[in-house]
Design a protein that fits this description.
58% helix, 15% strand, four-stranded antiparallel sheet, two-stranded antiparallel ribbon, 6 strands, alpha+beta, single chain
Length: 184
């Protein structure tokens, strides 16, 4: 039965980690290198993440610089950024690419907050689904007479407590990201 708990806790933890990574990729007005994480550059026929082929750094609060180790890849990186969905036009000076993050409008901030809430709800649904699967496994164990009815009740409470903890973590992450978006 402990294996069931450990597996459920691990899956719920991964759900929160994925949500955290998704939030990091949301552009909130400040320069953040993680917005480039999903962009792949065609590097000699291989899709390669930008951070594996260039030094990415935050030059100022709203400027991100990308300095490729191989300057011949400059145009490929620029093209990949232009075709991505981050909505920023790269500025290429021949050795470095600069991404200037514009100030967010009030309308765009509200839209981003809505996206944050939707991502949080998806994560909550995933955690509840894991809880349901775990409870089903424990009920099967009880039906097969592997555990007693009292053990089942204790297990259900333990699973619910874990679920509540992870839902609270998701809510906290969501509130922090919304605050971050609205403050800038």
């Amino acid at each position: 039965m402990e294996k069931v708990f450990a597996a459920a806790e691990e899956k719920m933890g991964k759900t929160v980690s994925v949500l955290s990574a998704e939030y990091a990729a949301i552009r909130a007005g400040r320069a953040n290198a993680s917005v480039l994480d999903k962009i792949k550059v065609d590097y000699y026929g291989t899709p390669t993440p930008i951070n594996q082929m260039a030094a990415v750094s935050v030059a100022e609060a709203r400027i991100l610089t990308i300095q490729p180790w191989d300057t011949s890849t400059l145009h490929a990186i620029e093209k990949a950024i232009q075709t991505s969905d981050i909505g920023i036009n790269p500025q290429n000076d021949g050795r470095i690419i600069r991404l200037v993050f514009p100030q967010l409008t009030e309308e765009r901030r509200k839209e981003l907050c809505k996206d944050v809430k939707n991502m949080a709800e998806d994560a909550r649904i995933a955690v509840r689904s894991i809880r349901r699967d775990c409870i089903d496994k424990v009920k099967k164990m009880e039906k097969a007479s592997e555990i007693t009815e009292d053990d089942l009740k204790v297990a259900e409470k333990k699973i619910q407590d874990k679920t509540d903890k992870f839902i609270k973590d998701i809510d906290k992450l969501s509130a922090e990201k919304e605050k971050d978006i609205m403050e800038i």
